[in-house]
Specification:
The protein has about 400 residues and is an alpha/beta fold. Helix content is about 40%, strand content about 30%. The strands form three sheets. It has a seven-stranded mixed β-sheet with strand order 12-11-10-9-13-14-15, sandwiched between helices. Helix 4 packs antiparallel against helix 5.
Amino acid sequence: MRDIEIIQINISGEDRPGLTTQFTQILSKYETTILDIGQANIHNSLAFGLLIETTTEKSGFIMKDLMFKCSELGLQIRFTPISIEDYNAWVLRQGKNRYIVTVLGREITAEEISAVASIIKEYNLNIDAIKRLSGRVPLESKEQYTKSSIEFSVRGSMNAEQRAAFQHDLMNISGTQMDISFQTDNIYRRSRRLICFDMDSTLIGTEVIDELAKRAGVGDQVAAITESAMRGEIDFRESFTRRVAMLKGLDENVMQDIAEHLPYNEGLERMMSVLKQVGYKTAILSGGFTYFGKYLQRKFGFDFVYANELEIEDGKLTGRYKGEIVDGKRKAELLRFLCSMENIQLEQAVAVGDGANDLPMLNLAGLGIAYHAKPKVKENARQSISTIGLEGILYFLGLKESTIVK
């Protein structure tokens, strides 16, 4: 039996095209088995690693040829022998659960990365890889809305109680400067297919019912009820019925004017463009009104809209609504219905919202995101975004800036 050698090869230096080809051509000449391979590039500086299996007879020739090639290219190379026992132990560790921790912010500091890494270490998890999802920002950039995102791929064993505690600790260090997402890295995370959005204060920067109320002269009264409902202090159905009743007599033409001047939340257009590029089905599940949901559908290409229908007679709002109220329970039912219709699992669905009536669908979906949410909602959601715009959702989905067509 031939003597087997396992060697770890680390190459560093200035990156340039064709390096991987040149190194692997040398290895192929000696019929080398590559057990693992990885490469990273930071500011045109290469870090290239290989784990190879060869024989004692060939290992010396392989190392000699690689050293000559690196000397020719001005690169540094290091060889580390790995025992078969250490290799087998490493293979066994690969069976542990994998998780993804995503960090978002306008900019991400060393202090913030250190805080995340410290929690990962506290739970005896190993960081397998770190990659930047967001694009590079020039130092002299005057862009108003910069954004940064880093993704940690981690591995380790945690039971359900430990996972909940780990996520709680991550949420505790997130805040006004940094958002953190924690997800199990499984087949569902890699095959999301549907994303459902609340509309008011999520896709748009206002509550439409408040805008209607201002035109009806009852703005303060309706706004007070809206805030109380979004904080979860009063039942949504009760608050909805009371607010709609106050709109009685308002001319329906007002709705068109409001729709044409809706304030869109940061990143809406870009987010929708990317989601369509990568094949997501998108839905608006809103406690607001169908008229405005349909307007957004025409403008941005949402696939589905479910909201509340205002009753209109002789061109005036009657102060009543038609059909079933879309409240929190109904949003969750609609999420189930859409998953069934699209023939996907709930774990493949994403839900995004800001109010208490969004919590049922946020907790039901495989990925539920509280977006610039009220405190009660953020406390009860598994993921949240408070630092950047709607494009942050793309990073939680694992999309890298360089792979997105602008």
